[in-house]
Amino acid sequence: PLPQPPSPTPTPPPPPTAPQTKTFSVSGQNFAFTPTVIRVKLGDRVKINFESTGGFHDFTLEGYAVGTSQVNTGGKTSVEFVADIAGSFVFYCSVGTHRQMGMVGTLIVE
């Protein structure tokens, strides 16, 4: 019989990549967020850097039970979470009646 060529060394699978953190800068003023829509992929680690550019505000995300502390004009705060639930979620300012006054946005997890 013919000699068999040496079998190729199997290539080890690449190590699993740690989920990348998707960072978003969100600003709030009386009575709006910029941006109003944030899109991420299911499983992404999300970091929201929130800054109040006018007034006393926070960033609260419905459906994930996460939010930032409340900050005054010029104040900065942040929150991190894993987007492990697909769908559309409202984020809003929980100060006073700011939500009812239109200080809302949408997080879309695809």
Major sheet characteristics: 5 strands, mixed
**Mean pLDDT over all positions:** 92
Q: How many DSSP-defined strands?
A: 9
For the largest sheet, list the strands in their spatial order: 3-9-8-5-6
Description:
By secondary structure, the chain is mainly beta. Helices cover 0% and strands 43% of the residues. The protein has no helices and nine strands. It has a five-stranded mixed β-sheet, with no helix packed on it. Strands 2-1-4-7 form a four-stranded mixed β-sheet, with no helix packed on it. Strand 1 and strand 2 form a beta hairpin. It is elongated.
Fold topology:
Blueprint: E1 21-29, E2 32-34, E3 37-40, E4 45-52, E5 60-61, E6 66-67, E7 76-82, E8 87-92, E9 104-109
Parallel strand pairs: 1-4, 3-9
Antiparallel strand pairs: 1-2, 4-7, 5-6, 5-8, 8-9
TL;DR?
The chain has strands at residues 21-29, 32-34, 37-40, 45-52, 60-61, 66-67, 76-82, 87-92, 104-109. With 110 residues, the protein is an all-beta fold. A five-stranded mixed sheet has the order 3-9-8-5-6, with no helix packed on it. Strands 2-1-4-7 form a four-stranded mixed sheet, with no helix packed on it.
List keywords for this structure.
five-stranded mixed sheet; mainly beta; four-stranded mixed sheet; 9 strands; 110 residues; elongated
